[in-house]
Design a protein that fits this description.
alpha+beta; 3-stranded antiparallel β-sheet; 2 helices
């Protein structure tokens, strides 16, 4: 499920309404956002990132974003995927060290510690690569529930992601 990255990009700048998550079921909370849609004009391919200032329709705060071209966004996404795959591939031989000497504390420490670190780093980079939009700034890439958040439509069905 990829994000629709286009030259004239539709984006939703949203402001989180509630301070505490709204309970929707046992152990689950939801966050409500209000916002407005705007069209981001990306720079031509090969041009540097452009600064874009947008005013939040709810609180009136002016937010600044760096907008990358479509080609630069694809390169940023590819670099992150390559790094993620490198870390995930590096985790395999690190875990494979256990087969050399399963009774050694040093080997087990290096294997589990290094393998786990490489796996978690690779997984985190893959998570970031999948959400790369080429819009960098307030709440654009935060995995949590930031006060201001940018959403762009999904390529398949147009839902905001």
């Amino acid at each position: 499920m990829g994000l629709a990255i286009k030259r004239d990009q539709r984006a939703l700048l949203a402001h989180r309404r509630n301070f505490v998550g709204r309970s929707v079921s046992y152990g689950t909370v939801a966050w409500d956002y209000d916002g407005r849609t705007w069209v981001v004009e990306r720079p031509e391919d090969g041009e540097p990132a452009r600064s874009c200032r947008v005013e939040c329709p709810v609180c009136g705060r002016t937010l600044t974003y760096a907008v990358h071209s479509v080609a630069a966004t694809r390169r940023r996404r590819a670099r992150r995927w390559i790094a993620a795959l490198a870390f995930l591939v590096a985790a395999v031989p690190l875990f494979g060290l256990i087969a050399l000497d399963p009774g050694s504390v040093a080997v087990l420490s290096i294997a589990f510690g290094g393998g786990s670190l490489a796996f978690v780093t690779g997984w985190s980079l893959a998570f970031v690569a999948g959400g790369e939009t080429g819009l960098v700034g307030h709440g654009a890439a935060l995995p949590g529930y930031a006060k201001h958040k940018l959403f762009i439509p999904n390529a398949e069905d147009g839902r905001w992601m």
